[in-house]
Design a protein that fits this description.
606 residues; alpha/beta; Rossmann fold; eight-stranded antiparallel sheet; binds fructose -6-phosphate
Length: 606
């Protein structure tokens, strides 16, 4: 949700900032801009729309600049426009600021500055930061920014240039992500490490309240008490290839196809000598006192949590409930030191999830994060962290993060089940082997991806549709429905199959697509009945089921078979055709699959 980058060094500043912005475009694509220090002045170029617009407007322009900041915007305050794009100058153009986050007290600050004669040229909250820096400037830009921070309420990661300090890039963070890339005689800032991979893999993650000043050969970080601090240097394992399309037309397709590898790596990281190993996270003593598990997340991560709840209840036999982070916080949940709360977040930066985490921690719960991003805020705030091994996920629509989160939940459920003594050795072995086989089975579905295209061709001309399933299949249906909504703009809803006839069936008419997920063998007869009910009212049936289920095939217009597995683990597989269906439908409609409208990856506002 807005991406910021910054550079100081002797490289081609304009190109480095542009390339960083291209990598971060998934964080918002309403507008983009950059500020470069050139010949003692700060030059700002910004354009509404995609980064290509900015690149076009910069074409042929040469700047002798060794320091710059850039921004890609997901609009919050003020419509997408050139005027509201970042960077924002101060009134006298001595300062330029890029910002990710929301300044909650901006109206108070704005009024105060206007009374002093400051004239604002945008509707954004961010502009108060640049104006305040001008107003409070004391000859030392680092010290000024530190003092300005004390006036700001809300969340921010900022990059600041001041024309009197042509070799200093100042940055700061509070509740929004910011990472410093450490180079050779050059240094960087970025909202996320993927923008840095081309240049360096050594980074410092800033903590809340930190302020830093970067020169080409020096980085100084100060904590919220203004003490010079040494943050731990981290090495990023991700490689540049993972953050590029590698010949795929879209990141979403590439990431769907990366799932066998991602699940395999997640499995290998956590399974040692045939046993799921989370001893770094939980031991018998922790488990012994836990009587309730909450799983908290947003969007797709929440849907992975639904599968997690299923796995924890069925395998670990522990009372578990999944909830949406933004609801959980205000629902007055009963939490104490016997509660374990698992927070799931690909980015590790989602505001609602983070706020729920802080709430659970304050009530004494044991908090565990499942996240994909090393060093992310949620990973640092939680008591314990489990990393998924999905690699960078760039497409806005989450796919491989979801399957690796699901893999973690199943392995964790097995680990807890063994600690609690609720699983036989035989079953344990069988289940581990089921999970181990998943990458190969996912690959088989991907090898047959062409079979999904007729369903996408049908779907692309529809304006709505339904996803139905029972038990675990319903949990997968919810994710399938979200996936197609976000990338193809077709309105779909997921329903528990049995619930459909309690009202929603009134919406079924001739040709309405109904996607049926039916992998739970004990419920297949009931699913067949549900299919017949909607078919009798004109529905077009697209079914996902185990490949030999003739009963299902016979009642479906399109049947997509998946490899056989134990029902408990079917969610690993049934989601794959649904992701492909969403992708191909979006592609068939000519939508920008990786950057669907109104969305941004990593939602860092509440
Ligand atoms: C949908 C999607 C979102 C995210 C949600 C949480 O494809 O990606 O629904 O799952 O915004 O994001 P994280 O997992 O980063 O907390």
């Amino acid at each position: 949700m807005c991406g910021i980058v910054g550079y100081v060094g002797h490289g081609d500043t304009k190109e480095i900032i542009l390339q960083g912005l291209r990598t971060l475009e998934y964080r918002g694509y309403d507008s983009s801009g950059m500020a470069l220090m050139s010949d003692g002045e700060i030059i700002v170029e910004k354009k509404e729309g995609r980064i290509q617009n900015l690149a076009d407007s910069l074409k042929g322009k040469v700047f002798s600049s060794e320091i710059g900041i850039g921004h890609t915007r997901w609009a919050t305050h003020g419509v997408p426009s050139d005027r509201n794009s970042h960077p924002h100058y101060s009134m006298d153009k001595s300062v330029a600021v890029v910002h990710n986050g929301i300044i909650e007290n901006y109206q108070v600050l704005k009024k105060e500055l206007e009374e002093k004669g400051y004239v604002f040229s945008s509707e954004t909250d961010t502009e108060v930061i640049s104006q305040l820096i001008q107003d409070m400037y004391n000859g030392d830009i680092l010290d000024t920014v530190i003092k300005v921070q004390k006036r700001l309420e809300g969340s921010y990661a900022i990059g600041v240039l001041h024309k009197n300090h042509p070799d200093e890039l100042v940055c700061a963070r509070e509740h929004s992500p910011l990472v410093i890339g450490i180079g050779e005689k050059e240094n960087f800032i970025a909202s996320d490490v993927s923008a840095l991979l081309k240049y360096t893999k050594d980074v410092y993650y800033l903590e809340d309240g930190d302020t830093a000043v970067l020169k080409s050969g020096e980085i100084k970080i100060f904590d919220k008490n203004e003490n010079l601090v040494q943050r731990e240097k981290k090495y990023i394992e991700w490689n540049l290839e993972q953050a590029t399309k590698c010949g795929y037309p879209h990141f979403m397709l590439k990431e769907i196809f990366e799932q066998p590898q991602a699940v395999k790596e997640t499995f290998n990281k956590r399974v040692h000598n045939g046993k799921a190993d989370f001893s770094d996270v939980l031991n018998y003593k922790d488990i012994e006192k836990i009587n309730k598990i909450y799983i908290i997340a947003c969007g797709t991560a929440y849907h992975a949590g639904l599968q997690g709840q299923f796995a924890l209840q069925k395998i670990a036999k522990l009372d578990s409930a999944a909830d949406i982070a933004s609801e959980f916080r205000y629902s007055d949940p009963f939490i104490d030191d016997k509660t374990m709360v698992i927070f799931v977040s690909q980015s590790g930066e989602t505001s609602d999830t983070l706020a729920a985490l802080k709430e659970a921690k304050s009530k004494g719960a044991l908090t565990i994060a499942i996240t994909n991003v090393v060093g992310s805020t949620i990973s640092r705030e939680a008591d314990k962290v489990i990393y998924t091994m999905a690699g960078p996920e760039i497409a806005v629509a989450s796919t491989k993060a979801y399957t690796t989160q699901v893999a973690i939940f199943y392995l964790l459920a097995l680990y807890i089940a063994e600690l609690r003594g609720v699983i036989s050795e035989e079953k344990y072995k069988e289940y581990i082997s089921e999970i181990k086989d998943m990458p190969e089975k996912i690959q088989k579905i991907l090898d047959d991806c062409e079979k999904i295209k007729p369903a996408a061709e049908y779907f692309k001309n529809r304006i709505n549709g339904f996803y139905i399933g029972r038990g675990l299949d319903y949990k997968v249906a919810v994710e399938g429905s979200l996936k197609i909504k976000e990338v193809s703009y077709i309105h779909t809803e997921a329903f528990a199959s049995g619930e459909l006839k309690h009202g929603t069936i009134a919406l079924i008419e001739e040709g309405t697509p109904v996607i049926v997920i039916a992998t739970q063998r004990n419920l297949i007869d009931k699913s067949v009945s549900n299919i017949k009910e909607v078919k009798a009212r004109g529905a077009y049936i697209i079914t996902i089921g185990f490949k030999n289920e003739e009963n299902l095939k016979n009642v479906s217009d399109i049947f997509i078979g998946i490899p056989e597995c134990n029902d408990l683990f079917a969610g690993f597989l049934s989601i794959i055709p649904l992701q492909l269906l969403a992708y191909y439908t979006s592609e068939a409609k000519g939508i920008d699959v990786d950057k669907p409208r109104n969305l941004a990856k990593s939602v860092t506002v509440e």
